[in-house]
């Protein structure tokens, strides 16, 4: 059975994704000019954001550093546990830096709120968020950005359970080049 046969419908195609990622990178490039001191630190939230993170930073045209943090709130289900945990912390020091937190999807806001507070406690001078998908219909926690942080959103996602482009169900489907709705019989 092909991977595509597990998908009920495609929400965003590979071409639509690549175009939107380039637009986000252009916004970030303009907001953080090449003379920003220190250069911004882009922090990807593993594992879901890895493809988005790679595509995004390859299109940002200013000096920057990249690191990864791992926060978990889903396990193998389709609903957030509501109690995110940081299971892998940053290698780089964020003190006094402009941090751009890169997420695959923001839905309840629990994980994002936890990560922003974590970065602020480590001394980040500002925290921006760049999320590939934003699902405001599921928001339970209002998060506040730090300093002059901005919120960058790729697409507003309807209240579907989506996979692909790094996002998974039970660690599967991350390798789809598009965003699709998983057929209910597969979760």
TrEMBL record:
<dbReference type="GO" id="GO:0006166">
    <property type="term" value="P:purine ribonucleoside salvage"/>
</dbReference>
<dbReference type="GO" id="GO:0000166">
    <property type="term" value="F:nucleotide binding"/>
</dbReference>
<dbReference type="GO" id="GO:0000287">
    <property type="term" value="F:magnesium ion binding"/>
</dbReference>
<dbReference type="GO" id="GO:0032263">
    <property type="term" value="P:GMP salvage"/>
</dbReference>
<dbReference type="GO" id="GO:0004422">
    <property type="term" value="F:hypoxanthine phosphoribosyltransferase activity"/>
</dbReference>
<keyword id="KW-0479">Metal-binding</keyword>
<dbReference type="InterPro" id="IPR005904">
    <property type="entry name" value="Hxn_phspho_trans"/>
</dbReference>
<feature type="domain" description="Phosphoribosyltransferase">
    <location>
        <begin position="13"/>
        <end position="169"/>
    </location>
</feature>
<keyword id="KW-0808">Transferase</keyword>
<dbReference type="GO" id="GO:0046100">
    <property type="term" value="P:hypoxanthine metabolic process"/>
</dbReference>
<dbReference type="GO" id="GO:0032264">
    <property type="term" value="P:IMP salvage"/>
</dbReference>
<keyword id="KW-0460">Magnesium</keyword>
<dbReference type="InterPro" id="IPR029057">
    <property type="entry name" value="PRTase-like"/>
</dbReference>
<keyword id="KW-0660">Purine salvage</keyword>
<dbReference type="GO" id="GO:0006178">
    <property type="term" value="P:guanine salvage"/>
</dbReference>
<comment type="similarity">
    <text>Belongs to the purine/pyrimidine phosphoribosyltransferase family.</text>
</comment>
<dbReference type="InterPro" id="IPR050408">
    <property type="entry name" value="HGPRT"/>
</dbReference>
<dbReference type="InterPro" id="IPR000836">
    <property type="entry name" value="PRTase_dom"/>
</dbReference>
<keyword id="KW-0963">Cytoplasm</keyword>
<keyword id="KW-0328">Glycosyltransferase</keyword>
<protein>
    <recommendedName>
        <fullName>Hypoxanthine phosphoribosyltransferase</fullName>
        <ecNumber>2.4.2.8</ecNumber>
    </recommendedName>
</protein>
<dbReference type="Pfam" id="PF00156">
    <property type="entry name" value="Pribosyltran"/>
</dbReference>
<dbReference type="GO" id="GO:0005829">
    <property type="term" value="C:cytosol"/>
</dbReference>
<comment type="pathway">
    <text>Purine metabolism; IMP biosynthesis via salvage pathway; IMP from hypoxanthine: step 1/1.</text>
</comment>
<keyword id="KW-0547">Nucleotide-binding</keyword>
């Amino acid at each position: 059975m092909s991977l595509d046969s597990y998908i009920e419908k495609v929400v965003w195609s590979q071409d639509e994704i690549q175009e939107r990622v380039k637009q986000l990178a252009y916004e970030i490039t303009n907001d953080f000019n090449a003379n920003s001191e220190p250069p911004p630190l882009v922090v990807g939230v593993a594992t879901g954001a890895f493809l988005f993170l790679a595509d995004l930073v390859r299109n940002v045209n200013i000096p920057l550093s990249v690191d990864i943090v791992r926060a978990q709130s889903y396990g193998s289900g389709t609903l957030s546990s509501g109690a995110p945990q940081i299971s892998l912390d940053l290698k780089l020091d964020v003190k006094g830096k402009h941090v751009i937190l890169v997420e695959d999807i923001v839905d309840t806001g629990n994980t994002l709120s936890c990560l922003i507070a974590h970065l602020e406690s480590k001394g980040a001078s500002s925290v921006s968020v760049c999320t590939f998908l934003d699902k405001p219909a599921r928001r339970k926690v209002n998060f506040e950005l730090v300093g002059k942080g901005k919120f960058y959103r790729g697409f507003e996602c309807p209240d579907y359970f989506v996979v692909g482009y790094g996002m998974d169900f039970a660690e599967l489907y991350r390798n789809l080049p598009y965003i699709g709705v998983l057929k209910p019989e597969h979760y």
